[in-house]
TrEMBL record:
Lineage: Eukaryota, Metazoa, Chordata, Craniata, Vertebrata
The protein, known as: SCAN box domain-containing protein
Zinc in keyword set: yes
PANTHER family membership: PROTEIN ZBED8-RELATED, SCAN BOX DOMAIN-CONTAINING PROTEIN
Primary site of residence: nucleus
CDD domains (UniProt xref): SCAN
GO molecular function: zinc ion binding
Length: 149
């Protein structure tokens, strides 16, 4: 965003021809919003994946709540079928990977299935000793925090 301002410490008419231009970079706001969306999406995914049938009053309510949780996570009003399928298949792909490979790939936070496959292929070419150390457990065992962006 660009805005034009007269110098504040001069009276009108002084400093003629001097124009102050202020340029604001909103890229950090976009990145912050993207990170917040990712956290929200991950929280919705966790609520969906950890839903407990016994916590509700019957099958209709359970199904209804699962539907709502799934929609909050996948946001079908905003995302295409392909984006939603990409997310689901990526999540399942990362879930079925062997433990150490899974931890390494999840630590890289791949944004697509193609990126995840490339990471696995790269890891498989390297001796295990050269893999970077992964600190702490992943978000949830076998489940990354992905969002559609």
């Amino acid at each position: 965003m660009t805005s034009f301002q007269e110098p504040q410490d001069q009276a009108p008419g002084q400093g003629e021809g001097l124009l102050i231009v202020k340029v604001e970079d909103s890229s950090w706001e976009q990145e912050s919003a993207k990170q917040e969306e990712s956290r929200d999406s991950e929280a919705c995914r966790q609520r969906f994946r950890h839903f407990c049938y016994e916590d509700v009053g019957g099958p209709h309510e359970a199904f209804s709540q699962l539907w709502e949780l799934c929609c909050r996570w996948l946001r079908p009003e905003l995302h295409t079928k392909e984006q939603i399928l990409e997310l689901l298949v990526l999540e399942q792909f990362l879930t079925v990977l062997p433990g150490e490979i899974q931890a390494q790939v999840q630590g890289q936070h791949p944004g697509s299935g193609e990126e995840a496959v490339a990471l696995v292929e790269d890891l498989q070419k390297q001796p295990v000793k050269t893999w970077p150390q992964v600190r702490g457990p992943s978000h949830i065992q076998g489940a990354p925090g992905w969002y559609l962006g």
